Amino acid sequence: MELSVVDLSRLQFAMTALYHFLFVPLTIGLSILLATMETVYVMTGREVWKRMVKFWGTLFGINFVLGVATGLTMEFQFGMNWAYFSQYVGDVFGAPLAIEGLTAFFMEATFVGLFFFGWDKLTKRQHLAATWAVAIGTNFSALWILIANGWMQHPIGAMFNPDTMRMEVTSFYDVLFNPVAQAKFVHTVSAGYVTAALFVLGISCWYLLKNRHIAIAKRSIAVASAFGFASALSVVVLGDESGYEANLNQQMKLATIEAMWETEPAPAAFNVIAVPDMERRENLFAIEVPYVMGLIATRSLTTEIPGIKELVEASKDRIRQGAIAWDALQKIRANPKDVDPNVRETFAQNQHTLGYAYLLLPFTDNPLTATNEQIDAAAWSAVPNVWPMFYAFRIMVACGFFFILLTAVFFYYSSAGKLDYLREKRRWVLHVAVWAIPLPWIACEMGWFVAEYGRQPWIIEGMLPTSAAVSSLSVIEVLITLAAFVALYTVLLVIEVTLMLRAIRKGPEDGQQPDSPHAMPVSRAYPIAAE
Known about the structure:
Blueprint: H1 5-20, H2 24-44, H3 47-81, H4 83-117, H5 124-153, E1 158-161, E2 166-169, H6 172-176, H7 179-209, H8 214-249, H9 251-257, E3 270-277, E4 282-289, H10 292-298, H11 308-334, H12 341-350, H13 354-358, H14 372-380, H15 386-415, H16 419-425, H17 427-435, H18 439-453, E5 458-460, E6 464-465, H19 475-506
Antiparallel strand pairs: 1-2, 3-4, 5-6
Helix pairs in contact: 1-3, 1-19, 2-3, 2-5, 2-7, 3-4, 3-8, 3-19, 4-5, 5-7, 7-8, 7-17, 7-18, 8-9, 8-15, 11-12, 11-14, 15-18, 16-17
């Protein structure tokens, strides 16, 4: 298959975004856990809590630095690979990204410095205030990025100007309080909390298995299990809100996630397992649970969820209407100072469908003269590949329910003071927690895949196709930068893993040695501990 500039640019941004998000959820979640642990230290004065904060803070610092470094390249790509997109959304993205930059590089960086170097220079309460400032700054830094991303999913509060060919903000309030952005923010942040909780829980269980740093490990499990259990429950609830918003604003994404080809009587069934066939445009096999999808997506028993085929038919009508808007736009651009008022009126009446006309450009140079076959092809090009969407979503959901179960088990044993029972009688439970460490990252990446791949072929939902947003680059130029990013990020990944494993092997600086001379050698336990 011959790759185009669009394909390679998407691949490059997807690679850098997915890699960057390896660091984001852990940074978000660990910042809150650190602030919580230090609050306990200030309230109790017990040094063991201070050692906990310093140890987990070291891992936070490694992750934070590499997260910032990998995030910078993503913003540079807007101008490098997505020139027209940058021009198109500059007025909308300017404020959120500027505020995010101020939050990340001024507030976060300042207080992170105080966190690491202020232990002997600040009072307990002053240092605690700095730690909470890091946590608040880290979380709100994510808010502004997700406001920008949420606007791409549900573009409100802005109007397209045909004279400048840009979106211009009409209501910053609507951009800021976009319901999709707010739902994404709380869902993403909660997922970060789960990621950090499972990270702390798994490493602490490894210490229990190795009979090392028992006091710190038990306390860390107590905090992580409680925090993780509450966060895992909230992820499910907030994920439901995201699904509801998708039904309101991104119906094609929702229909694709559910492999729902036909519109079903309300309330629609939920496909637990299915074998979607894009060529036949049907499911070869499916196991359904009646009513569940309708209740989740519509919160009612009477509201229908449109199927893929019905949405495609609706897209054909929008494409035809969009072609009228496209033709009027060409006339405005040809003579912007002396254009017929009727042309502007025609454009104003149809501009909400302009983006659909751009779907025709890969099939014809003039959308106004497109054939029915070309319109049909353009409409079906707006359907993401169902199979990866269907199963990525279910992997994410399955992980979410597993996290609830795992954190609930540890919350029970920790609250009941029975962690020693796990060490002696149920060591396999500790092993499960260790091996579960990567799962939150898998769930997070699957979530972002569903969110972003499910929006295709739109870079801005219903307004600007991805194919119309790229820079004027050659395939070779994009391949060179893609190869450079892959090489650079591979080096950074090796550095990250090496530093993390070294810090985990060393453990908290409490001078404690393994309690049992019969403890398993470190090199035989887990890959995380290999010398």
